[in-house]
Amino acid sequence: MIKVGIIGGTGYTGVELLRLLASHPKAEVAIITSRSEEGVYVADMYPNLRDYYKDLQFTSPNTEQLASCDVVFFATPHGVAHQMAGELLAAGTKIIDLSADFRIKDVDEWEKWYNQPHGAPDLVNEAVYGLPEVNREQIKSARLIAVPGCYPTATQLGFLPLLEHGIADTSQLIADCKSGVSGAGRSAKIGSLFCESTENMMAYSVAGHRHLPEIKQGLECIAQQPVNLTFVPHLTPMIRGIHASLYVRVKDHFTDLQALYESRFANEPFVDILPQGSHPQTRSVKGCNTCRIAIHRPQNGDLVVILSVIDNLVKGASGQAIQNMNILFGFEENLGLTNLALMP
Amino acid sequence: MIKVGIIGGTGYTGVELLRLLASHPKAEVAIITSRSEEGVYVADMYPNLRDYYKDLQFTSPNTEQLASCDVVFFATPHGVAHQMAGELLAAGTKIIDLSADFRIKDVDEWEKWYNQPHGAPDLVNEAVYGLPEVNREQIKSARLIAVPGCYPTATQLGFLPLLEHGIADTSQLIADCKSGVSGAGRSAKIGSLFCESTENMMAYSVAGHRHLPEIKQGLECIAQQPVNLTFVPHLTPMIRGIHASLYVRVKDHFTDLQALYESRFANEPFVDILPQGSHPQTRSVKGCNTCRIAIHRPQNGDLVVILSVIDNLVKGASGQAIQNMNILFGFEENLGLTNLALMP
Amino acid sequence: MIKVGIIGGTGYTGVELLRLLASHPKAEVAIITSRSEEGVYVADMYPNLRDYYKDLQFTSPNTEQLASCDVVFFATPHGVAHQMAGELLAAGTKIIDLSADFRIKDVDEWEKWYNQPHGAPDLVNEAVYGLPEVNREQIKSARLIAVPGCYPTATQLGFLPLLEHGIADTSQLIADCKSGVSGAGRSAKIGSLFCESTENMMAYSVAGHRHLPEIKQGLECIAQQPVNLTFVPHLTPMIRGIHASLYVRVKDHFTDLQALYESRFANEPFVDILPQGSHPQTRSVKGCNTCRIAIHRPQNGDLVVILSVIDNLVKGASGQAIQNMNILFGFEENLGLTNLALMP
Amino acid sequence: MIKVGIIGGTGYTGVELLRLLASHPKAEVAIITSRSEEGVYVADMYPNLRDYYKDLQFTSPNTEQLASCDVVFFATPHGVAHQMAGELLAAGTKIIDLSADFRIKDVDEWEKWYNQPHGAPDLVNEAVYGLPEVNREQIKSARLIAVPGCYPTATQLGFLPLLEHGIADTSQLIADCKSGVSGAGRSAKIGSLFCESTENMMAYSVAGHRHLPEIKQGLECIAQQPVNLTFVPHLTPMIRGIHASLYVRVKDHFTDLQALYESRFANEPFVDILPQGSHPQTRSVKGCNTCRIAIHRPQNGDLVVILSVIDNLVKGASGQAIQNMNILFGFEENLGLTNLALMP
């Protein structure tokens, strides 16, 4: 049984870590921190937790206490992990960061998009990008893992086989992505109000979203060449779910794409290639760690349409973080992650 | 490991049984039947099941095969179980019926509300009403269990301590209940369409709902006296959840109701009494088997307001069915039912 | 054509006034104020207004300018109108206040519930409670109108004929009310977030809601005797709508309640009594000024169930405010209020 | 005052015609037909209509009676209008067909996609495609108007200026479209149930949707050259709204696209070009006839992203039908269509 600490546990990724870890047979949450909610019971904020965490309280973050944990998750907004990571690593704790602080290798690029100086540029290089389907080996021996964002996870897994196989025309990739509202977090913003976001569909940040450089970096790393990506996120009136609709021209007309995808992900516990002709539903992954993918080639043309869905809070955040933890500690990769999606 | 059969598995209670049993360490689904979907894979109907039940297919119901199961769940509309139960019981199988066929002890009353002759009136008396908080002992030795309906579960648990304690004015009980749309099942009815039920609230069946006689019978059994009940169900634009708002005048002004409820349910694994002043949220039980209850006495008057919430598909149907199965087979009562609610 | 001013127009009742007044043939919006949004175009905040109000901007409130209006609407939170009303009335402008400032005749009671000293106690008495179905004559000659709240409107219209007719047992009235989320306004509160309020049903403020004294006062005024009211509001996952489920024991078993209600409201342009056995849907009044009511007497008992629905932003706020304006200025009562509900 | 007949008025486009025509000063509904609902009051099916159409009943379709109307709307599924149109035209009535029967000029193509022989191929050529922004002059003198589909309207208006101006690379147009559930109509299908479509996002008919040939024909007609279109529709959990996200490479880097769009639609009453950098919301057109468009060129590249939103039941069906009627009868184009969108 390993000891887990969670920093910044009041947000949706924090409560999702608690929900998933409650059924994990080899990990237990020892500490959960929140400056603003110090002393509050987690179950008072999220009453679903009463059935397991009746006595767990938020505490103020304390490095010494946290250092007693085998692993610490950062479920904070960006800007926190890069300031605390160094000290915790020095104390021998492993770090799994759900925020964006260590995802982008180019520190200048990071500082531009996140609008602040980076507090630990030296650690950026060491950090392993925690997409197990790409970096499983590096994750095993990592000290510091940067868990991918939600859009980046759905998009990279969707493009992956085409890019690895070298048949994608990388001069123009399009990712038209639809996200549930929980992607905006639990902060009190007008735009996230029920009355502002239900019965509505809209694109946002078309001029440039913070996940753009992360996705681009990931795709280029997979493709081993520059890619040109247009990324358009949309806000969808549902709590959870990312639906990525990916458009890419293939250079080779004869590859059996269905077979290519099935073979690439055959041994992946959390990637499910749907039968030919399928349309994945975001609700089919609601609350579970699976990414479901379908491949289409309308009118048998050269433009391929990949549909890729995940739960943004699970495979797009907390579930993937636990998957990384399992790999890191040599557990079976699906421990604590076997629950089926809630449907309906 | 016991063998489970499910009859009529295409509806929402059927898929919910499959979801919950997937994590049950001592039960496995051997057979699932559906006349209309014979040969279809359950995962083609409910893609969330792909992560566990990739090979399970619907079969046509066959008594001989079903008799090989240790227990058979009826997840059918009313009118099926009363025709098949006798033969299965004779073959030695235990039956847990999620439909209404064996809930009402007065066969004439049942025939009036369900508008058909009852095919096994002799079994009605033997059937145990599967509300563990009331009938745990009888459940242990039952052959045939009638799982309570969703409204009846939330309402009976809410009124229970007041009625047992004899301080409720039973001449006028009011249950104003709000249900999610999944209570209407998975049949293609205009009234259950998204465009007909979202962004809308309405009462229905105010003149008389089929759950009325069931609730009344249960309350009278608990109170050991006649009760007068007004039951008004409402359709609420959400998938899951029952919110029962119960109104009852208490005859004794001095009882500490909070203490009464906490003490009555102290050892119940699936009833959670919230702290004084709380307002239970249906989402706090979304996907889990807990019933959460809060007790209010506005302006310190004699009219008590009890708020009781459950997930209609879990504690109101499939979860409670599995709880009954656990009791019946001497398992720990919460096996397969430990998952936390999905929130948000 | 009269000139209209709107104070505090950034909230949902403000934009609803703009929407409805855009089709009013005898009124035009001259001024709309907001301290925080001074200089902002209303259409930038609510893009639906681009089709009519492309050039209207928020200005800082200025009494002299406002005094040039024939009527000023307060679409502010409580606490603003009681401070500004005196000066505006002195300047000869009529006031229609959508907030709670002048609804409650007992100033001490108001100060207790609203937690502040009242700035114009002398005006409280003069203010006319703007429920046209009760106070049409007084409205005609009013200077200051207090528009009823949303819950109070649905509840009072529902109980009205029984109370006037003297057959209600006033010792125990119950109002179990369900409101859409727009009732909470457009402020950035966690509880109003999409992810916190969708797929959820909950009661709130059971111990005491600010609309309780307003409803009680109104009912007692109609009944001409004290009433005992239990009022339980619930938050429902929809944008608009109030569904009031009212429970009352009648003292006379023989009155034809359907006929009583139909006759009482026969000449009311905005109250629609549904045929016997109906269940009004909140969506049937979405965006329109109608209150629809159905009367039930389950099992032909003495407990009567009244179902009453309105759109909280229209008949429960801005539409009723315009209805008051029409009466006040001698216009046809339904000017600007003839649009049908949006369904689906 | 012209007399209007509506054939097949039980669906969502039928009730929407009734809602909009209720406020039309120069048209009145004389006849509404439905074989299955003969004798039923329209207000019993859609209670929002009680406020205007209390006495209107569905009748069985009768050509003689219909011929007494100045104009007949077909609000039927495809396959009805092509069988009845000839007789009605011969009787001198104008026809505005909201179904797909006369939209596609190539009869073989139509028969392939709609899977039936066309009953009036001779009329296909005469029919005018009722997109006023393209065909206003022909509409004025038409006898038979084919109202465009919802996806085709949003998509064609979005691409229009680029295609007319000749700067679009027509070798690869992509339309990633999101539709509310009302687009699927009011028929009792499992896929349209609340529990199946809420909290979910999914693509459908990626292999080929019936609107594909209609859009392609329209775009080619505008561009005066062949176009290559990939069209991917998605089902979105909301009642109303189409959000079209359009991707197209422009051949000329220097054109001011914002100015091009503003100038092209300057005199169009129902097309609204948003300011640079905007993201149109579907709710901003909920219930109104406006199409709102924003133009983006991410990272100043050659791939242009056009965002175009309409209400599928208004500008995508019934509102556009009335707009056509207004043009046809020489009325002001916006009669009956001036209501603002309902927001929130």
Automatic annotation (TrEMBL), chains A, B, C, D:
Its EC number is 1.2.1.38. It catalyses: N-acetyl-L-glutamate 5-semialdehyde + phosphate + NADP(+) = N-acetyl-L-glutamyl 5-phosphate + NADPH + H(+). Keywords: Amino-acid biosynthesis, Arginine biosynthesis, Cytoplasm, NADP, Oxidoreductase. It is an enzyme of class 1 (oxidoreductase). It holds the Pfam family Semialdhyde_dhC_1. GO terms for cellular component: cytoplasm. Residues 3-142 form the Semialdehyde dehydrogenase NAD-binding domain. Pathway: Amino-acid biosynthesis; L-arginine biosynthesis; N(2)-acetyl-L-ornithine from L-glutamate: step 3/4. It is found in: Cytoplasm. The keyword 4Fe-4S does not apply. Transmembrane segments: none annotated. GO terms for biological process: L-arginine biosynthetic process. The keyword Mitochondrion does not apply. One of its GO terms (molecular function) is NADP+ binding. The active site is at residue 150. Belongs to the NAGSA dehydrogenase family. Type 1 subfamily. Catalyzes the NADPH-dependent reduction of N-acetyl-5-glutamyl phosphate to yield N-acetyl-L-glutamate 5-semialdehyde. PANTHER family: N-ACETYL-GAMMA-GLUTAMYL-PHOSPHATE REDUCTASE, CHLOROPLASTIC-RELATED, N-ACETYL-GAMMA-GLUTAMYL-PHOSPHATE REDUCTASE, CHLOROPLASTIC-RELATED-RELATED. This is N-acetyl-gamma-glutamyl-phosphate reductase. It comes from Entomomonas moraniae.
